[in-house]
Specification:
Strand content of chain B: 25-35%
Number of helices of chain A: 13
Strand content of chain A: under 5%
Oligomer: heterotrimer
Number of strands of chain A: 0
Shape of chain B: elongated
Mean pLDDT of chain B: 91
Largest sheet of chain A: none
Structural class of chain A: mainly alpha
Helix content of chain A: over 70%
Chains: A mainly alpha, B alpha+beta, C mainly alpha
Structural class of chain B: alpha+beta
Largest sheet of chain B: 6 strands, mixed
Shape of chain A: globular
Largest interface: A-C, 97 and 95 residues
Radius of gyration of chain B: 24 Å
Number of strands of chain B: 18
Distance between the termini of chain A: 34 Å
Low-confidence stretches of chain B: none
Order of helices and strands of chain A: HHHHHHHHHHHHH
Mean pLDDT of chain A: 83
Radius of gyration of chain A: 22 Å
Number of helices of chain B: 9
Order of helices and strands of chain B: EEEHEEEHHHEHEHEEHHEEEEEEHEE
Distance between the termini of chain B: 40 Å
Helix content of chain B: 25-40%
Chain lengths: ~260, ~325, ~270
């Protein structure tokens, strides 16, 4: 009996909190027909915002992936004084308010007027947005790769070394094949985070709008159809992300 | 094929001395065991020879060449690990061919060599399988083939049979001996199992707490141990104060004798042909005696029986 | 495992490679994370250390902080319980469509916070289909925080419950009790801490539905943003530093708990 109560309770809670809100966005977006929604999401501003979002993702995701792998290798495979502290720093973006992140970037690059003098604009343009998304999405690849690296141990790599392989060969033929699923999973998580980032980007973007920022702008302009339409696009990307995630990492088995 | 000389090698980990001024010569073509308890430094020594660890002091020479500064990949060593270190995502064939592939050998050569090696280790039919589909013993044979593929001058085995069950271990020991007779590569095997060392190796290096206690043939170690540690470690031993007595040097008789002490039989353990008799002397000292089936039958030994024992041979170590 | 416990993971295929990787990694971390945070701390000191205190204890800031911390704490606890219950259901129970439910939990992870905020506003705000209107109220703020922290908790609890599950089936109940104790003393506080940290920092989900009424429904993150927009940089920085230290504190607490737990597992 209590099992049923628990079941209904939890499912109800879930429905109220998750399913219904998201479903409702779809409803509102398509309330006045598909054409209307399409129109709302293909305005120049919306398209621009989508472009900006995708471009920043195209830059941030590969960068975070490469450095994430290097960071994971450094953490697990080298002797690291202060490893605990570095671990905390890596986890920090997960626990830190995105607005604080954005503000930090704003303060760093706003006062460093020297950069602007050399024609490198960071704030209020793509580099700033990329840096903000790099900050907040930094942990994902690292955290996925570290436990896998730890688990596979170094024996295979040592064996490869005795057989004559150089470090890059070892990485390419032995290490990477072992971590590639963890990397893939991390990439998907990173992508989702980068596309959806709102708080940090808000602080550094100025008048430029990524798609999430566009949503807020539309709400403030009382143009709800634009906001809903853009939200649907983002929600679809999110759902696609979840689907891909589960394909990589079915919850039943241990990673 | 090459001999190995280790000279005054020292290695520390975080203040812990794993190896202290270790020097030893491994003759070309020999099968040498590095024997010692956990933490004795034997694995560390092996890894220093392999080039996987850099010593804090001393030199390593392989084939007369000082390789101390060289990384593992250029030393020409083949290594086999306790937990196989199989490349899980590659087939058996690719595993064995790995070293050759890295050295960019021509396709035909690789094919021929891998084929021959798989035959040598009796894994011919399993070339397309993955390591996960093999038994422990098969994986280790694959690891050996893989190590031999690059024609190393030295073959290093780090507790290669430790992860296998007893029967497979025995089989592979004999197999390794035969393989060595055929291939004649200078081989070093690390083990904590003295029986394994005695059975397999021509020369044994006994290590304890980072130092070499003795180097010699199995016979030398057993008959003429250099100190207490070697005597206790290699073969069973009775310790009576400062005196050491081998169980087979404990004579058991039914007749009292002025040279004998009285003792009671606590337990008679039949281990196949030999029999271990656990005794307790009247002064409370426990003793182990090793007798043959025949002797036990003759004496009609059984639990609780009173017998008379004496040591036919004793060893005392000075200093 | 290596029989000699001193065998540490050796340097990355040659010491030079390891040092390089370390250097690159640290450089990256510095540029992306540490430098901006340093700038933040520096800016907050602009008016002297005392000014941090002043800025943070300003009535509006203090109100925002109190509100945020309080609500985050409540929400963390509520979701810790609810999340555990949900995870329990997902792990132990079998019912049709369970896979779909499991997938839904992931959604808030991937959904941009602003979209979450929008949907909550649409549903539970003015003109919402349920006739509920909690916009501009603390309840609305609560909803938003619950939304974003729930999946954290569920996903964190699930693997532990899976472990517990197999353990309990294999071992006797007496051993199971040990695992449960671990869960209670270590995993649970971990969850609450993480959910709390997330809730404290949340911005996108709350900025729409809460209405951001100063002293009433203004979250700390929104306050900071507002200060930034009004160009009160040092004030924004000061309150940010408070949040930063809360986050750090939570992380170190979790790290300490985690270290205690995995003391027997060595790398």
């Amino acid at each position: 009996m209590s099992r049923w109560a628990l079941r209904i309770g939890t499912l109800g809670y879930l429905a109220l909190l998750l399913l219904v809100p998201v479903g409702f966005v779809f409803y509102r977006a398509f309330e006045h027909g598909f054409g209307h929604a399409w129109h709302a999401v293909t305005t120049p501003a919306a398209v621009h915002a989508l472009e900006l979002t995708l471009i920043s993702a195209a830059v941030a995701v590969p960068v975070n992936t490469v450095f994430g792998i290097i960071l994971a290798l450094a953490l697990v495979r080298t002797r690291f004084p202060g490893r605990g502290l570095v671990n905390a720093v890596v986890d920090l973006p997960l626990a830190l308010s995105p607005v604080v992140v954005g503000l930090s970037l704003y303060l760093l690059y706003g006062r460093v007027g020297g950069l602007a003098d050399h024609g490198i604009r960071v704030l209020f343009s793509l580099p700033g947005i990329v840096l903000a998304t790099l900050f907040v999405s930094m942990p994902f690849v690292v955290r996925e790769v570290v436990p896998v690296l730890r688990e596979i141990g170094t024996e295979q790599e040592q064996a490869a070394e005795t057989l004559g392989a150089r470090p890059m060969q070892i990485f390419r033929r032995i290490t990477f094949p072992a971590i590639r699923w963890a990397v893939a999973y991390g990439v998907v998580l990173t992508t989702a985070r980068v596309i959806g980032e709102f708080g940090a980007v808000s602080a550094v973007a100025g008048t430029k709008l990524t798609l999430p920022l566009y949503v807020r702008a539309e709400v403030e302009n009382f143009d709800t159809s634009g906001a809903y339409a853009a939200s649907v696009v983002l929600a679809l990307i999110a759902i696609a992300t979840v689907v891909v995630l589960r394909a990589f990492h079915p919850r039943e088995e241990t990673g | 094929m090459a001999g190995i000389t280790v000279l005054d090698v020292t290695k520390r980990f975080n203040g812990f001395s794993a190896l202290q001024d270790v020097s030893v010569v491994i003759p070309e073509g020999s099968l040498t065991a590095l024997l010692g308890p956990s933490g004795s430094g034997k694995s560390t020594l092996l890894r220093v020879i392999a080039g996987l660890e850099e010593p804090d002091g001393g030199h390593v020479m392989i084939g007369g060449e000082n390789v101390t500064q060289q990384p593992a990949r250029s030393r020409g060593v083949g290594m086999v690990f306790q937990h196989y270190a199989a490349f899980k995502h590659m087939t058996v064939w690719d595993n064995v061919a790995f070293g050759l592939t890295i050295h960019k050998r021509p396709r035909a050569e690789i094919e021929e060599r891998v084929h021959k090696l798989l035959e040598l280790v009796q894994l011919e039919g399993l070339a397309k399988r993955y390591p996960a589909q093999l038994s422990g013993g098969q994986r280790q044979r694959m690891a050996l083939a893989r190590a031999l593929a690059v024609e190393p001058s030295v073959l290093l085995l780090d507790e290669p049979f430790g992860a296998l069950d007893a029967r497979v271990r025995k089989e592979l020991r004999a197999w390794l001996r035969r393989l060595h007779d055929e291939v004649h590569v200078t081989t070093i095997i690390v083990t904590h199992d003295q029986e394994e060392a005695m059975e397999v190796a021509g020369q044994i290096v006994v290590l304890n707490e980072g130092r070499i206690e003795q180097v010699g043939s199995p016979r030398e170690l057993y008959d003429a141990p250099a100190n207490e540690f070697v005597m206790s470690f290699v073969g069973p031993v009775n310790r009576l104060g400062d005196t050491f007595v081998r169980p087979h040097d404990v004579e058991v008789g039914l007749e009292p004798d002025v040279r004998c002490s009285e003792a009671m039989v606590e337990r008679v353990v039949h281990l196949g042909f030999e029999v271990r008799v656990e005794l307790v002397r009247e002064d409370g000292q426990h003793l182990l005696a090793q007798l043959t089936q025949e002797q036990v039958q003759q004496l009609e030994l059984e639990r609780g029986q009173i017998v008379y024992v004496r040591q036919s041979r004793e060893t005392v170590f000075t200093s | 495992m290596a029989t000699e416990s001193i065998t540490v993971a050796p340097p990355l295929a040659g010491l030079s490679g390891g040092a390089l990787a370390r250097g690159v990694a640290m450089g990256y971390l510095s540029v992306v994370v540490l430098l901006p945070l340093a700038a933040l701390i520096w800016a907050s000191r602009a008016g002297g250390l005392g000014s941090i205190w002043d800025a943070a204890t300003q009535p509006e800031a203090a109100a925002a902080l109190r509100l945020t911390l309080g609500l985050a704490a409540i929400c963390a606890l509520v979701n810790a319980v609810a999340g555990t219950a949900i995870a329990w259901t997902l792990v132990r129970d079998r019912f049709p469509g369970k896979g779909a439910v499991d997938a839904v939990i992931d959604l808030p992870f991937a959904l941009p916070t602003i979209v979450a905020g929008l949907t909550l506003l649409a549903l539970y705000g003015p003109g919402g289909p349920f006739g509920i209107d909690v916009a501009f109220t603390r309840t609305g703020l609560m909803f938003a925080l619950l939304f974003v922290t729930l999946p954290f908790v569920v996903r964190a609890v699930q693997p532990v419950l899976l472990e517990l599950d197999t353990e309990m089936e294999e071992a006797a109940a007496s051993l199971g009790a040990g695992s449960f104790a671990i869960f209670r003393r270590i995993v649970f506080p971990n969850l609450v801490a993480l959910a709390f940290a997330r809730a404290v920092g949340e911005f996108g989900a709350v900025v729409l539905i809460s209405g951001n009424l100063p002293f009433k429904t203004e979250a700390a993150s929104v306050y900071i943003f507002g200060q930034l927009q009004s160009d009160n940089q040092s004030s924004a920085a000061a309150v940010s530093v408070v949040l930063l230290f809360i986050s750090l504190g939570v992380l170190l607490a979790i790290g300490g708990i985690r270290r205690r737990r995995t003391r027997h597992d060595r790398v």
